[in-house]
Amino acid sequence: MASTAPLIAGIELGGTKCVALLASGPGDIREQHVIATTDPGPTLAAIEAVLDGWRFDAIGIASFGPLELDRARPDFGSVTATTKPGWTGTDLFRRFGRRYERPLAIQTDVNGAALAEGRWGAAQGMSTHSYITIGTGVGVGTIAGGRPVQGVAHGEAGHMRVPRAAGDDYPGWCRFHGDCVEGLISGPALAERFGVAGRELPDDGPQWELFVHDLVGLLHNLVTAFAPERIAIGGGVIAEREHLFARLRARLAQSIGGYGSLGPYAAELDRRLGPPGLGTQAGPLGAIAMGLEALER
């Protein structure tokens, strides 16, 4: 029997590639297309060429950022100052809204993925959980009370600064902050730091010790700030390096140091810290989750 659930045109915009997904959820994916992320004009035109051939009820956008997510601002739904060349000021919300005249919702890619994990993935039934992506950039989405944590702007925890490993003097790749976490462990940072792409590094290479050190600094701060019920880590850099999770858990427990109520938390990291339950589909399904939210509003 054909599904009667609403169909969503989901658009996940990433720093390296974009995914257009026609689906109602993880069990009902009708089509999926991957488009290389280049300049905004040709990239968005290629996405529109896909969507023009679909029939759907709503659109969900989960995009790299930073994004303007304050509805009172005239540039709501636009990319703001970003490390991605040429994308600053790109208006996503109005462009797709005008073209298709369907209910539309937009969020950061990490918040979208976190919402998808809560709706369908390993964070189902949880009130507070986080999703970290490590790819072209580093992003962190945290959900509290079922909604993304947001103040005046959405969080940019991927750009937090952490203590550096002894003897590590790499200045960092981020053009805004130098050696923030994104500047140390994102895909472009690894390539610049070690001279080869992360996917070419051997599993037992000493370079991963620096990666683990820097990522654990972020995780320590995230746990001490929010103590999420679960933290999922995805993205291209770590998707094929799941052996790193054991090292991350051990180092994070050591970093927490048995402090207060976090002592029991550190003993439960086997179930609290791991890959997304939705796997590599967490990001694209984040866009589907946003489209469903547009209809639910």
Structure explained in plain terms:
- By secondary structure, the chain is α/β, with parallel strands linked by helices.
- It contains eleven helices and ten strands.
- The strands form two sheets. It has a five-stranded mixed β-sheet with strand order 3-2-1-4-5. Strands 8-7-6-9-10 form a five-stranded mixed β-sheet.
- The longest helix is centred in the C-terminal third of the chain and has 20 residues, at 207-226.
- The radius of gyration is 19 Å and the shape is globular.
Task: Quickly describe the structure.
This protein is α/β, with parallel strands linked by helices.
Helices and strands in order, then pairings?
Elements: E1 8-13, E2 17-25, E3 28-36, H1 40-51, E4 58-63, H2 92-100, E5 104-108, H3 109-119, E6 129-134, E7 138-144, E8 147-148, H4 181-185, H5 187-194, H6 207-226, E9 230-234, H7 236-239, H8 244-256, H9 262-266, H10 269-272, E10 273-274, H11 282-296
Helix pairs in contact: 3-11, 6-8
